[in-house]
């Protein structure tokens, strides 16, 4: 056990203060023995869903319950009051992200039943001071969130001197999507301050073990619990990671490898959602049905069935690439067939996308190879040699550059600009997790309209 785990102090609610103090003393011993505190962040919009998920998380081993910032913005202090009523013996965290009027917002959350109140570490010093003074008055604790702080160690040391009770090493969701990690921020703080450290941002079971080993006393988990189809099971898995204090041994991967692996896990609709409904090609279908296509584009501009450049592109491409062909809109003659497909398989090309027609469909389907096209036609073209390889082209309504990522499945094909690929992949994975949770709630008897609260969130 990390020696600093003995320093944690749990806050006391305004209601039944003596009873809460005695309860917290008992919980301190339990939580220390269990290698830290697991805080579930309810970053949801609907309170009813949040309460149900919180109950499952508590049953799985979560210690603290957080009314996340989106939940507070959606439901107000009613969210904090409801969590206090539903979980009278739990520590309730209100992630207010206080940036101004520190005393007012701390008072508001404390009176609603919060034990720990989140403020922004980069708020003005006067806001910090007012928040701390209000915390003393109302018997609550202040957790300062280091999100977006330029010099987190220096600011954390300042905050400790101001009387802040907990420092949170937090990398926000948008930052995580670009590859920043909260565990790296935690490492810069560990052993440098004397108040408890929390960590938040993309933590899973393996990361929870790493966090405990690196000095975190509070592990805050949002999406990997609340978006899980099995909230209780996911919470138990994270709790086990914390108890062992060991993360999985992971092979070091480049961003390109991680991007490829994620794109293999997510669907084309997940990706277009992550791109704000952009990037999808028009009028194109999978010739072989259930296949998956992921790779970087080798682009080909050809004309009316001229198959010279499409076939030459096989030699230009590298294993894992995708050949993307603009046949100048012609669907009466095919620039692609079974022999070219077989050549791609032997070269290791991941698949082919054609703004035009394909032939030899029966043979290609027998190969179960990812070929996407607008139509099928038996007519073959001729190798005239017109066009270009690896120039920017327009294919099925989308501009495609060499090196852009191409992902295809039965729903269609999506083009992802190379410079955005890693971020889009990470966002698409989060969308898939959200859908998994919604799917589970539908299986339990809810409906999509009920889950989404469509009437509440319709544009006025």
Automatic annotation (TrEMBL):
Ranges where the Orotidine 5'-phosphate decarboxylase domain occurs: 37-238
CDD domains in the cross-refs: KGPDC_HPS, RraA_family
Reactions that this protein is recorded to catalyse: D-ribulose 5-phosphate + formaldehyde = D-arabino-hex-3-ulose 6-phosphate
Pfam families: OMPdecase, RraA-like
Enzyme class label: lyase
Protein transport in keyword set: no
InterPro entries xrefs: 3-hexulose-6-phosphate_synth (IPR017553), Aldolase_TIM (IPR013785), Bifunct_HPS/DMK_prd (IPR017120), HPS/KGPDC (IPR041710), OMPdeCOase_dom (IPR001754), RibuloseP-bd_barrel (IPR011060), RraA/RraA-like (IPR005493), RraA/RraA-like_sf (IPR036704)
Gene Ontology MF terms in the entry: 3-dehydro-L-gulonate-6-phosphate decarboxylase activity; hexulose-6-phosphate synthase activity; orotidine-5'-phosphate decarboxylase activity
BP GO annotations: 'de novo' pyrimidine nucleobase biosynthetic process; L-ascorbic acid catabolic process
Entry keyword set: Carbohydrate metabolism, Lyase
EC number(s) given by UniProt: 4.1.2.43
NCBIfam families in UniProt: PRK07028.1 (NF005442), RuMP_HxlA (TIGR03128)
Family as reported in the entry's similarity comment: Belongs to the HPS/KGPDC family. HPS subfamily.
PANTHER family for the chain: 3-KETO-L-GULONATE-6-PHOSPHATE DECARBOXYLASE SGBH-RELATED (PTHR35039:SF3)
Protein name per its UniProtKB record: 3-hexulose-6-phosphate synthase
Species for this entry: Methanoregula formicica (strain DSM 22288 / NBRC 105244 / SMSP)
């Amino acid at each position: 056990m990390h020696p600093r785990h003995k320093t944690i102090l749990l806050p006391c609610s305004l209601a039944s203060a003596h009873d809460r103090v005695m309860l917290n003393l008992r919980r301190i011993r339990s939580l220390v023995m269990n290698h830290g505190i697991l805080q579930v962040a309810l970053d949801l919009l609907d309170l009813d869903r949040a309460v149900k998920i919180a109950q499952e998380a508590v049953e799985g081993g979560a210690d603290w319950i957080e009314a996340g910032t989106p939940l507070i913005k959606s439901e107000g202090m009613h969210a904090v009051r409801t969590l206090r009523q539903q979980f009278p013996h739990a520590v309730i965290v209100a992630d207010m992200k206080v940036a101004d009027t520190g005393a007012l917002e701390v008072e508001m959350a404390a009176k609603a039943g919060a034990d720990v109140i989140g403020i922004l570490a980069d708020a003005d010093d006067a806001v910090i001071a007012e928040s701390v003074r209000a915390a003393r008055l109302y018997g609550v604790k202040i957790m300062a969130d280091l999100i977006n702080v330029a010099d987190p160690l220096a600011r954390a040391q300042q905050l400790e001197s101001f009387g802040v009770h907990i420092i949170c090493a937090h990398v926000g969701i948008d930052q995580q999507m670009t590859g920043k990690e909260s565990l790296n921020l935690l490492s810069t703080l560990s052993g440098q301050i004397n108040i408890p450290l929390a960590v938040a941002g993309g933590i899973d079971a393996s990361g929870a073990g790493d966090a405990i080993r690196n000095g975190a006393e509070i592990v805050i988990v949002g999406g990997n619990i609340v978006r899980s189809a099995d909230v209780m099971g996911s919470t138990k898995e994270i709790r086990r990671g914390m108890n062992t204090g060991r993360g999985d041994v992971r092979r070091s991967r480049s961003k390109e490898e991680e991007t490829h692996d994620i794109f293999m896990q997510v669907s084309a609709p997940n990706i277009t959602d992550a791109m704000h409904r952009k990037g999808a090609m028009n009028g194109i279908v999978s010739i072989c049905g259930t296949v998956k296509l992921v790779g970087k584009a080798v682009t080909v501009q050809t004309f009316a069935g001229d198959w010279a450049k499409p076939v030459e592109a096989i030699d230009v491409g590298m294993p894992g690439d995708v050949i993307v062909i603009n046949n100048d809109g012609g669907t009466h003659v095919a620039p692609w067939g079974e022999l070219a497909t077989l050549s791609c398989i032997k070269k290791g090309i991941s698949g082919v996308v054609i703004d035009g027609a394909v032939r030899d469909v029966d043979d290609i389907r027998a190969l179960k190879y990812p070929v996407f096209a607008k139509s099928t036609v038996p007519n073959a073209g001729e190798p005239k040699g017109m066009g270009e390889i690896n120039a920017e082209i327009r294919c099925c309504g989308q501009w495609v550059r060499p090196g852009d990522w191409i992902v295809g499945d039965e729903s269609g094909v999506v083009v992802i600009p190379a410079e955005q690929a890693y971020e889009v992949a990470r966002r698409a994975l989060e969308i898939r997790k959200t859908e998994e949770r919604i799917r589970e709630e539908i299986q339990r008897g809810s409906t999509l309209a009920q889950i989404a609260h469509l009437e509440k969130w319709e544009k006025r």
